[in-house]
């Protein structure tokens, strides 16, 4: 039960590519209502948006995202040896460095946790100190798209592989917990028959179904005070050119879900 007047928030931001722009809208709504976000836990795009917020550079990231066109997104794709990932990801991260500087996580003014996956040892890796650049770089390394990060005896990739909604790493007791899942039930205009899937589409939809189940299980296990669930088909992974629209989606869903106790 949330006590009237409670304002501090632990915000958990899930992974899911361009749909993660909705995180910005949720943050904007919470701030407008006077909530204080003093802890952020994220994976993949959630680690990126959450990191920008923790560094007080979210307006700069938002402004940059709003300038992106399809052509500019393609130019940011630095192709690599397919053995290590379709893209290196360095060009994207270099561009992000121009938006905000690297800092040590422990020097931030709010709690920040980024989650990656160690494929070599099949376990989650949690970043709560050290370079935020390294943490984000590891957490957004989507297998088959961005090259993973090799360090020590680990090979780090997207945290969403094992945990697309890392609610289990919230550490601040007494905070209101808000989770933003990017794996919400898809909006459907018309019924879809499994017989209509191509082989590739069948693989992709199976992966998405697995992610939705993992996110749903995390919500059931850890029971946040509020869960803002962005429909899984709200945007494709690379549709960052739709930033303004997706930010509005997050804002409106946060307003709808949390309004009763605001």
From TrEMBL:
Keywords: Hydrolase, Lipid degradation, Lipid metabolism. GO terms for molecular function: hydrolase activity. InterPro entries: Acyl_Trfase/lysoPLipase (IPR016035), NTE (IPR050301), PNPLA_dom (IPR002641). Residues 11-171 form the PNPLA domain. GO terms for biological process: lipid catabolic process. The keyword NAD does not apply. A motif (GXSXG) lies at residues 42-46. The active site is at 44 (nucleophile), 158 (proton acceptor). It comes from the Bacteria. A motif (DGA/G) lies at residues 158-160. A motif (GXGXXG) lies at residues 15-20. This is Patatin. It comes from Sphingobacterium gobiense.
């Amino acid at each position: 039960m949330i006590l009237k007047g409670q304002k501090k928030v632990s915000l958990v931001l899930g992974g899911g590519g361009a749909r993660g722009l909705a995180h910005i809208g949720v943050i904007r709504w919470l701030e407008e209502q006077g909530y204080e976000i003093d802890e952020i836990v994220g994976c993949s795009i959630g680690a990126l948006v959450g990191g920008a917020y923790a560094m007080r550079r979210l307006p700069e990231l938002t402004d940059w995202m709003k300038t992106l066109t399809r052509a500019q997104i393609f130019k940011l794709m630095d192709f690599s040896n397919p053995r290590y990932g379709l893209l290196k990801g360095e060009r994207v991260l270099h561009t992000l460095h121009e938006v905000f500087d690297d800092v040590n996580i422990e020097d931030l003014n709010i709690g920040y946790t980024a989650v990656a996956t160690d494929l070599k040892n099949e376990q989650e890796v949690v970043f709560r100190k050290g370079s935020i650049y390294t943490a984000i770089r590891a957490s957004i390394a989507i297998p088959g798209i961005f090259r993973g990060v090799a360090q020590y005896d680990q090979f780090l990739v997207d945290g969403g592989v094992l945990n697309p909604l890392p609610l289990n790493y919230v550490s601040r007791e007494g905070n209101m917990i808000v989770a933003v899942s990017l794996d919400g039930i898809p909006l459907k205009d018309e019924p879809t028959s499994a017989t209509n899937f191509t082989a590739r589409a069948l693989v992709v939809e199976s992966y998405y179904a697995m992610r939705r189940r993992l996110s749903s299980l995390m919500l059931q296990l850890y029971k946040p005070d509020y869960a803002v669930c962005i429909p899984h088909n709200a945007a494709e992974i690379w549709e960052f050119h739709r930033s303004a629209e997706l930010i509005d989606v997050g804002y409106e869903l946060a307003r709808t879900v949390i309004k009763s106790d605001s």
